[in-house]
Amino acid sequence: MYGEEIAYSDIKEIELTENLPTIKLKAKGFALGDHRKGYFHTDGQGVKLFISGKQGPFLKIKTKNEEIYLNRKQDNIQTLFKDLGQLLKSN
Fold this sequence. Notes:
By secondary structure, the chain is of the alpha+beta class. It has one helix and six strands, in the order ββββββα. Strands 1-5-6-4-3-2 form a six-stranded mixed β-sheet, with helices on one face.
């Protein structure tokens, strides 16, 4: 449910961040406790969230059209960030 495939060519920027934007409203998706998947509205824009808690770090992916936040276990998200960064540099 609410999976996402992103072409490397569409990714403009990735970063690790400890904070999520302030979520104002669920637009389309799933929210139960700290678990959020889908489209959400913030102060200035809409974002996609694939998160399982409020604790960072979060991987923030900016594409040509949207901003996506995801997290997993802390060591897994840092490994994903490192691996994705290396793939983006080579493409």
